[in-house]
Amino acid sequence: MRPLSALAGTLLLTLGLAACDKPEEKKQEAPEVFVSIASEQPYRPQQGFNARIESKSDVNITAQVSGKLLAIHFKEGDQISAGDPLFDIDPAPYKAALSRAKAELAKAEANKQSAEKNFERGEKLVKDGYISGSEYDTLEARMLETAAAVESAKAAVESAQVDLEYTSIKASQDGRVGRARVAVGDVVSPQSGTLTTLVGQDGMEVVFQLPEKLLMAVTKRDSKITVKDIVVAVTLSDGSEYAHTGTIDYFSNRVDATTGTLEARASLPNPEDQLRPGLYVRAILRLKAPLQGLMIPQAAVQVDQRGTYVLAVDDNDRVTRINLITGERIGENVLVNSGLDAGARVIVRGVQKVRPGTKVTVSEMKPATPESGTDSMPGTTDTGQTNGSTEQ
User: Fold this and answer.
1) Residue 247 and residue 232 in contact, taking contact as beta carbons nearer than 8 Å
2) What's the confidence (pLDDT) of residue 383?
3) In what order do the strands lie in the sheet with 194-199?
4) Residue 283 in contact with residue 51, Cβ under 8 Å?
5) Inter-residue contact 174 to 200 (CB < 8 Å)
6) How far apart are CA 340 and CA 312, in angstroms?
7) Could you give the 3-state DSSP secondary structure of residue 375?
8) Using an 8 Å Cβ cutoff, are 108 and 149 in contact?
9) What is the pLDDT of residue 66?
10) Residue-range domains of the chain with CATH
11) pTM (two decimals)
């Protein structure tokens, strides 16, 4: 029996030593996630539309009288002032017509004086019975006829004077003159059409088509945003933004049934003469004052069959799922319309490592820098689900 006891003791000792040498199992570490804090941030919604530039004072210069063109006083493309001469039409026929009209006026005035004197004599004669009442009436009628003839002659003189003045065509405003479409020696008339154009330097307009949905959003009585709250910026063809902004001052009185849009116009200053009529640009409508909105990084937003959601970390460092409704995207962030409160910690990085209920180790990421604008105005984007990004 002693040998068996010795063998058993040896076996137990060996197992005990083996148990002492076996390393202890390590506890599973909580996965690390990076979170961002949902916070209220300012933003300025904006939306762009294809547009063109027009001038409020785009004048077609035409001839008001007929005649041979004697002179052109401008260089095409020059900046000119109101009252500067542009064209001279041969004035000789109109000077002659004015002289004839003045002569007719002198004749009419002489006839009037004679008729007035005869009428005065008639007044005395009719009282003494030397002429009949019928003769007296004839003298009175003659006096009235000559008075009317004088007025007609005066009008003819004024008309002839105007025609003579029209032979010198002058600039009606300050602006830049276009190409002359006639040459010296041509015979021009009111039927000749446009001789040249004159575009005012200031007073430009940006013209664009506004979706009826946006119009309804900013013209509702209970709307928090009105047309007065919107400023219009212009992006030029080279991608740069025009230095000056304008305001909407005109809406068309009808919506285009084929496009569902209506024409809108915004006035723009043009002190540097940079804008020209016909220039194609992009009109950017944005709010004058920023709004406040709850934002989270776009990278935190996820989408599945149940809808849009984020994975957040609660006060006990456990992962929870929060369903939400998002709005416009602003730079790297997205607006949250409902479902989330400010201060919530949403997981931006490490989503693939966890699921609701998981205990995690939390590290905070710096929030994405908000941008000043977004590609949509309030009322133009449905506040529905936003496609989320998957963890990279």
Assistant:
1) yes
2) 36
3) 58-62, 194-199, 175-177, 79-80
4) yes
5) yes
6) 10
7) coil
8) yes
9) 95
10) 32-43+293-374 (2.40.420.20), 48-55+203-287 (2.40.30.170), 65-87+168-199 (2.40.50.100), 92-166 (1.10.287.470)
11) 0.62
